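pinned: reference chain
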Amino acid sequence: MGKADQKRQQKALALANADERRRVVLRVFQGCDDVGVSTLAELAKTGVTASCTAGCSHCCSQEIPMTRAEGEMLVAWLVENRTPEELDAIRARLRGWLAWYRTEYPQHLAAGLSRVDVFFRHAPKCALLEDDRCSAYPVRPVACRNHFVTSPASRCEPAVGTGEIDEILAVSKASYDHVVEIRRVVERQGGNFMASVHMHAEWLVHLLDVEREPWLDAPD
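pinned: its structure tokens
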């Protein structure tokens, strides 16, 4: 087989693998949603209810982990559902996030704040937020999908809250069998799952061609 044929074969395999990852991620998202609804319904019978509501976006400035597979699905959806101008606006917000992460973030750390507290009190909101609502809600990552709290929203408010929340961990635990499918498909394709996990914003920066490898310049 010649080099040209090898390249075509490798490209075809890469496309097939990416398509498989997207299909798996969509199944995982649906599984998480179904488990979340049923788990919250059972908890409600015991008096435990989530306080999260539409428009409450305080958690959207947090350090949100996301796999590349989830990022690929998210960006594919954005490209299909957003105009070029809207995508450019998202890229601009991502550049703003990168600038904060590389300048103000290490300054806050040097001043003695913890990583968690810096993100809670000072980080820019997610680049996909519009009017405090997720503009890519159908394809939001697992970390966002499974995040529910019972504590009042005021605790999540950076200006007045403590950031100490009462998280409903039962949802994440119940969805484990679905979420692990992402790891399985990545490893079945020969990938390193742990190396595929970066911050949500970093994957958006990479996959939307803002920067090739933003994590290489990440502060300690």
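why pinned: The chain has nine helices and four strands. The radius of gyration is 19 Å.
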